């Protein structure tokens, strides 16, 4: 399900705000260059040009999608969340994405299986006898990038790290599950014949917190609803934003090459309106979800990091007793978790 779903109405309003902000920015630049006629004319000519030459349409109507309604066609790398964890408020971004931790970008995975053989030395012989001992599915590591662009994705990053911390600990202290080892998870990725319901345990994980990237502030205590597609937050702010940008849009349309004097005279009004729009866009009220980030339980999340998870496939003794190599070769265990 989408993390947020922004309709075309909000997209057009934000487009108007962006255009108006561009006008105000160029007019401010013109004021700073009154002593340079060439620079002044250049600024005035660029009033209606999109910033940086970028297209005027915005990405506000895009959907950040972590969950999927049709899981049969979802080939992303994901780990299941055990039922004992679903009541955690910190893990709600994962719960509402389908009770899974999804790696948002295609990670690097290197898998291996091994067969162990032992040598038996024979006296006065040039070669030893080699006999088979056992086979095993070796542990493997998933290395995935996590890029964070806003408060929503920051909450997802927090939930992912908190889940991996929890999955490496046993049940101790109070509770019905005390004494149980860390939970067994299900790994799914890349369709039926790669990883399909593979039972795994998390042996270790690492997360990189770089020193050369920016960090985004968010708050778990006021986390918005994930995956619901609720538009209550955006619609609540939409009227305020529309009111603030309507005057800007009118001013932007009135500005022309023959109205330089009038444009310079309205700089003060534009500046005040731009400040109001900027306040709506930048917080503390989040325009795209109604969540109030950074008000309590502050957490700072890197905009770019790497999470590595080492997994060990694990199978029950009863299932291994019934294992048939011929059935495995014929694809009979395609959904049974054997790799």
Key traits:
about 350 residues, alpha+beta, 2 domains, 7-stranded antiparallel β-sheet, elongated, disordered N terminus
Describe this structure in words.
The protein is α+β, with helices and mostly antiparallel strands and 339 residues long. It is 32% helix and 21% strand. It has nine helices and eleven strands. Helix 5 (232-254) packs antiparallel against helix 7. The relative contact order is 0.18.
Q: Domains counted in the coordinates: how many? A: 2
Q: Class by helix and strand content? A: alpha+beta
The main pleated sheet reads as:
7 strands, antiparallel
Provide the β-strand percentage band.
Answer: 15-25%
Helix content: 25-40%
What is the element string, with H for helices and E for strands?
HHEHEEEEEHEEEHHHEEHH
Question: Compute the gyration radius: what is it?
Answer: 28 Å
- Low-pLDDT windows of residues: 1-9, 53-63, 227-242, 256-269, 276-296
Strand order of the largest sheet: 2-1-7-8-11-6-3
Shape: elongated
Average residue-wise pLDDT:
73
Distance between the termini: 30 Å
What is the number of helical segments per DSSP (H or I, 4+ residues)?
9
Number of strands: 11
Which SSEs are present, and which pair or pack?
Elements: H1 8-31, H2 37-45, E1 78-80, H3 92-95, E2 100-102, E3 108-110, E4 113-120, E5 129-137, E6 140-147, H4 151-167, E7 185-189, E8 195-207, E9 215-219, H5 232-254, H6 260-265, H7 267-282, E10 298-302, E11 304-313, H8 317-321, H9 325-329
Antiparallel strand pairs: 1-2, 1-7, 3-6, 4-5, 6-11, 7-8, 8-11, 9-10
């Amino acid at each position: 399900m989408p993390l947020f779903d922004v309709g075309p109405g909000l997209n057009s309003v934000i487009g108007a705000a962006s255009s108006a902000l561009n006008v105000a920015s160029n007019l401010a630049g013109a004021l700073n260059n009154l002593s340079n006629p060439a620079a002044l004319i250049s600024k005035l000519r660029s009033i209606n040009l999109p910033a940086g030459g970028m297209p005027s349409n915005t990405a506000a109507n895009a959907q950040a999608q972590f969950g999927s309604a049709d899981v049969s066609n979802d080939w992303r790398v994901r780990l299941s969340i055990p039922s004992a964890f679903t009541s955690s408020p910190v893990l709600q971004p994962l719960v509402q994405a389908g009770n899974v931790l999804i790696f948002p970008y295609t990670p690097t995975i290197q898998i291996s299986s091994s067969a162990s053989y032992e040598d038996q030395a024979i006296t006065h012989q040039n070669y030893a006898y080699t006999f088979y001992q056992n086979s095993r599915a070796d542990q493997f590591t998933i290395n995935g990038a996590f890029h964070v662009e806003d408060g929503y994705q920051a909450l997802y990053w927090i939930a992912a790290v908190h889940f991996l911390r929890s999955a490496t600990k046993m049940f101790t202290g109070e509770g019905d599950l005390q004494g149980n080892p860390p939970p067994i998870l299900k790994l799914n990725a890349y369709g039926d014949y790669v990883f399909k319901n593979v039972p795994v345990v998390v042996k270790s994980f690492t997360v990189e917190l770089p020193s050369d990237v920016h960090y985004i502030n968010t708050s778990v205590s006021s986390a918005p609803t994930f995956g619901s597609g609720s538009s209550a937050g955006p619609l609540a702010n939409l009227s305020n934003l529309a009111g603030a940008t309507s005057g800007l849009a009118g001013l932007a349309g009135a500005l022309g090459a023959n109205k330089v004097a009038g444009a310079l005279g309205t700089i003060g009004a534009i500046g005040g309106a731009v400040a109001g729009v900027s306040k709506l866009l930048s917080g503390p009220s989040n325009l795209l979800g109604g969540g109030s980030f950074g008000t309590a339980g502050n957490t700072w999340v890197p905009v770019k990091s790497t999470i590595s998870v080492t997994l060990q496939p694990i199978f029950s003794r009863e299932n291994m007793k019934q294992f048939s190599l011929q059935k495995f070769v014929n694809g009979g265990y395609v959904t049974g978790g054997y790799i």
